[in-house]
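During the reporting period the student researcher (J.K.) took over the structure-prediction task from the postdoctoral fellow and processed the backlog of single-chain submissions. One of the processed entries is reproduced below for the supervisory committee.
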Amino acid sequence: MEFVLPVARAPLQVFSQGLGTGASSASDLPPCLPPAASYTDSSDDETSPRDKQQKNSKGSSDFCVKNIKQAEFGRREIEIAEQEMPALMALRKRAQGEKPLAGAKIVGCTHITAQTAVLMETLGALGAQCRWAACNIYSTLNEVAAALAESGFPVFAWKGESEDDFWWCIDRCVNVEGWQPNMILDDGGDLTHWIYKKYPNMFKKIKGIVEESVTGVHRLYQLSKAGKLCVPAMNVNDSVTKQKFDNLYCCRESILDGLKRTTDMMFGGKQVVVCGYGEVGKGCCAALKAMGSIVYVTEIDPICALQACMDGFRLVKLNEVIRQVDIVITCTGNKNVVTREHLDRMKNSCIVCNMGHSNTEIDVASLRTPELTWERVRSQVDHVIWPDGKRIVLLAEGRLLNLSCSTVPTFVLSITATTQALALIELYNAPEGRYKQDVYLLPKKMVSSSPERFGVYSAGPRFPLPPPLISQGLNSFQMNTWRASTSRPSTHT
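J.K. obtained the following structure tokens:
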């Protein structure tokens, strides 16, 4: 089967904080941030990390980041994130004595942010060895990558990678003399695809795959349907904790942040069409509606479409509103949701962005033609200009808006990261034969058996738990009344 490869462009000079497009120097930095530990726009930063010879304080050079000197600043970012990730820190504290991942060799391909760093260090505390690359060429925080490299983690990522850099970094994580992964943690399926394509024999020793995004899950189901999935895979995206928290609440807050940082727009009165009404789409719609936007929804799933209507949104076809809307947001994880035909019909200055994982939801490749002019107006903001003078505002070249252009709520990501860690522990320690060569959901009882595991109590007042007799009665009722439900296949519980 064929996979869609990410379309990346030439490396761009961007900043992990703020939107300034002008050059800055150490003298411009606030006094609280020493120059040696901060981002600088020096000529050294223009050199490709692949051409640099860098070592951390321990003498190791098994990494490739933008600037190892940013490690101190990145360490502070990680420490701040730890304070907002009670679920993951609780798991680290509880399980580090048992070392449930001792002997695990995890190769990961995710967004490299402060929250991911807390996850990686938790996996290390639980006994795992990790090697990491980025799943998005724009989402890496360079200072965090430097901090991880300084701590001894082999990290190969920097913000503004080219397409060639992207695959080179993944290969450096996988193709290592004397080290072979036995677990995969993926976000989007690119790492899994690369191993299938280049190193299929590695799957003889790999015990399982943990996949976070809907795009990657689609690819796993395609492999399974074709009979090519040769190891068990855990679908984190559809787990109750990811769907109900990360996909909904994280996107509800970060969509506004990403749009505001890139466009400085006012939301009240704007007409917005959101393509897809899954949990991500629900979060985006709720946020924009609360800010006074007029929100339309496109959705092909009848259940989600009915939910959109019940929530007060007008269900439309994209062609019906494409000429009048001010903002187009894709949230499907699918391909070519917004086509060149749609882009041609948009009004002048329409803002186009993506909140799904894949960069193929918007057909950006069709805009790379001689008759259209691209104008970079600020970091991650391009004006694509038609011959008649009409222009659209394309954010992050169609890649994930919130992680490319802003930040995401740390507390919610703690829940997702904890789910990923539990999935890795479950697959790695599962007895032979428990999981077949198929795609599984993490059992709900595993992620909801202990509310404090996910930081419920740290988020606010304790919620009342049912007394033991009521719990026993509910369990009895379920067993006696719904016995037929126990006959469902256990492979996707």
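The committee noted the following: Residues 1-44, 461-466, 469-493 have pLDDT under 50 and may be disordered.
J.K. will present the remaining backlog at the next meeting.
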